[in-house]
Write a structure and sequence with these properties.
Blueprint: H1 7-18, E1 28-32, E2 40-44, H2 47-54, H3 60-69, E3 75-79, H4 85-91, E4 96-100, H5 104-116, E5 122-125, E6 128-129, E7 134-140, E8 157-164, H6 166-171, E9 180-183, H7 189-194, H8 197-201, E10 208-213, H9 215-218, H10 225-234, E11 238-245, E12 248-254, E13 262-263
Parallel strand pairs: 3-4, 3-9, 4-5, 6-8, 9-10, 11-13
Antiparallel strand pairs: 1-2, 7-8, 10-12, 11-12
Length: 265
Amino acid sequence: MHLGETFASLRRKMYYLLGRIPEKQYPLIVCQRALHEHGITFEASNQVEEWRVRELDDEKEFLGLLLEEICADDVFLDVGACVGIFALHAAGKCRHVVAFEPDPGFQNRIRRNIDLNNVLNITVVPEAVSDSNGEMKLYTGGVVGRSPSLRDFGQGESITVRTCSIDLAVKSGEIPPPNVVKIDIEGAEYLALKGMGDLLSSPAGPRAIFIEIHPVFLKDFGATAEDVISFMESRGYERVYRRIRDNQEHGIFRKAARELVAVHS
């Protein structure tokens, strides 16, 4: 569950919890048509998943800007893919999607949703993106809980997952160099960026990075939102979009800024 919910979305979920809306039979199929002409099909196994899909995780604007950015020959890297909302929307517009998702429950969900839509250009990588290859604890409450993180923010139990540096994954040929990247990993965004520092510094670095920054969670990773911005600037990126929502902020960074998309406060 993300912290940045609109009041309407939060109220809808409270109605579910209080039983004011008749309980539905899960799993159920949801077709999301807000940003796709023919719609994208998702299977929801519980009320939280259904909310994520119907409300686009409260990220419709951010996702819309991402889809405007993506080109037909692009490789899109989705770091923190969850149930595949960004990955599946992007798959219809680009050459290939690499979706990193370390949580086993969400891996099952995204694979199921890929099958439902007969999508062939998404590769799911069951690893957490960090600053090095190895293993770390992932704290997760499963698909009905809060979003998983490499730090304990009250999600529930922990499991051990493999971690991956994007620099090493690209250099080894495990994944192709991405043109566009989205990062949403509950405070570990600074670690992920450090692990792709060489790629970001290179002339062939991604032209656009879409990041959900978590100032509160970043503290547990020894970083701040300012550290994220400074790191991106040190690699030649300029923030061209910013939108604050509760305890999170969406940022878009460009290698060579073409224009200022928008600035919200």
